[in-house]
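Lab meeting minutes (informal)
Scribe: AK
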Amino acid sequence: MKNERLKNALTIIISFVIGGVFTFAIVDGGNLLGGTNETTTTTMGTTCSAKNCTKVVVDESGVSDSVQKVYDGVVLVQTYKDDQLTSTGTGFAYKKDDKYTYLMTNQHVVAGGDQVKIITSKDEEIKATILGGDTYIDIAVLRIDKNDSLTPLPLGNSENAKLGDFVFTIGSPLGYEYRGSITTGHLSGKDRMISVSTSNSSSTDWVMKVLQTDAAINPGNSGGPLFNINGEVIGINSMKLVETEVEGMGFAIPIEYAVSHIETLEKGKEIEWPMLGVTMINTTDLIALYREGITISKDMDQGVVVAGVEENSGADKAGLKKGDVITKIAGNKVKNSAYLRYELYFHKPGETIEVEYIRDGKEKTIEITLSKLETNK
């Protein structure tokens, strides 16, 4: 009997030992094979575009390595009118020379103000000069005296980014209290065509081609950088969809599009946009058409109706008339006035382009020499 109990006890002990070894092999088997028990790491979206870019490995610490590299290059932007704070946003340093540090933000962050201040990650408050800005690209360039605590951020290329790549933002949602907030997400879409208004009206008059992300973008993030995993700027956060049934749809201006105009803005010059020389009404705006006494076919749900022609403009000289329906610009279809401007602004004042239109039910084509659009800043 005693031998039987001893035998059973030994069986239980041996089972515990074997079970423990088996569990240890599962949990820490790498050490049994001469490995380590370090957490597995992966790289996500590792394309580097900027010079001297260092690829970042993502582990359980998230994007902290990338954040540390770029955190001091992001600032809070405060815009004042008559010494009253009118708006806040985010900006970032992108270059510096012997005298100055240069920053980018959104034009709508600084529009209408007579004074701009930036606040750095080290809580320095610095007056900034607005060198230039443009409503249509929604980019403004600021300049401050050279500041060594502001690190210019490496500029990447959104064209190299892939759908699903990990991205993150640094910004100032809701202003000063939450400045330096980090949000993370993915690149949800590329080449999204978003209709926007360049004025305070509710109607849209411009189309922007943007990047889409599910990283949180809130009021105050405007003008801040959208980074890839390596800490390269691939976009400038500009807007989000604000509807009760929509969640996680933010948009950023591709960085290469902004950079293509930045030199002009640095010099304080206006970007020269072309002009056809017509006032426009969308084919779907029946009330406006009725008010102007214009009748078009009920089947026309796309295109732009000419409501008026400016004297001596390119459109006037080419023979466009009130009531004509523009359907294509330089071979590209125009859905409405916002899309017409989008296609038109690929060209420059002085260029001659083909315009297709419908008059009295017949399709016609003319050539129009574009003049310069006079903007009111």
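Next up, CB showed the second protein from the same session:
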Amino acid sequence: MKQVKMANNLHILILAAGKGTRMSSDTPKVMHTLAGIPMIDHVIAKAKLLRPFQISIMINKSLSGLKKKYPDVQMLLQEPQLGTGHAVQIFQKKNKLDNNSKLIVLYGDNPLIDLHDLKNMNEQLFKNDVVIMGFQPKINTGYGIVVENKGKVLKIVEFKDASAIQKKIKTCNSGIMAFSSKALKLVSQIKNNNAKKEFYLTDIVKLSKKYNHKIKLINAKDVKTALGINDMYELGVAETIMQNQLRKKAMKGGVQMIAPETVFLSKDTIFGKNVKIEPYVVIASKVKIGNDVVIHSFSHIEGAIIKNKVSIGPYARIRPGTVLENNSKIGNFVETKNSIINKNSKINHLSYVGDTTIEEDVNIGAGTITCNYDGVKKNKTLIKKGSFIGSNSSLVAPVTVGKNSIIGAGSVITKDVPDNTLALTRAKQKKVKLNKKKK
């Protein structure tokens, strides 16, 4: 969709102060990951695409760490949490809004929100004072209900406060709302006369009716995009939805997936051209993949840069800090971490390479281990161009293997090896004749 340039008088407030007790987790609800990144990151990313004057997040004490992560976002503390209307009251006290200001209220647990809907809401504010995003789920599991009469919104009733007749109404309130400055002036009049003794932002609809403000109900483009996440089951449902979206986007962009339902991607994954992914592959966060790459089955990749004409797996684990240069190869049951594997170099099978730089045209034999941790700190290994590491070798870091050198199979290398050198450490083979007794 073509991006519409928005006026810079738009404010966006993301509500994230709820404790999320239904998640049954010590992790704050909005920090649970969806497609590899915290769910609130998805909301912030969508909000930024509207290019607002300011984004604010309403947090509780457990989310104080967000200040460092998002230095360009205003953090507001809501303690205690007395409802959505209370949150907007706090926002108003901290921000001076002029008569042209507009506000869109989003939720940190609404990561599937669609950009098309947000743009529509913002555009509707040019001719309305209150814009409500509604949706019609098959079953209302607790969402507020939008009460209408002849196409005009009368009020929004919280599910717990709704009558039996009102609970039969199909249109639900997603919670996402937008306000003109005229409507925002009514927030101070919201009362807490309800079952939960909270200040509901939705009560602004009744107040706006009283002052003859214009109210607009729009329906979400897709019911799934309006769904909030309140427990682990709903997080799993959202993960399925987002994975399907990411797979579709990748395949439409030219990525071949043999069994797409078995491939799991991160929201920030970047693909080049002519990439082939076999079944049962996980690509976690911060991965960039170049052109003509093949990822074989049962491989896991995270925090890595994969350049062109690279082959990975099967059963490979590529950990953060790995860079696989052009035409390199990582084979089956190989693990790499914080290492650079340069052009034309191969680690074909059954090896661990950590904190290592492997230069061009190096062959790493089966069972090779870089012993990078001495119990106190991580140490570096350097394997220079054209070297050959024999099978079942251990390179005890810090250590350097020179150019065009060979490490004999079964060696434990503890000292630097010069260029053009054969190095091996091997106990002398003994032969002892066995005296076999006849039965």
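CB comment: The radius of gyration is 29 Å.
No objections, moving on.
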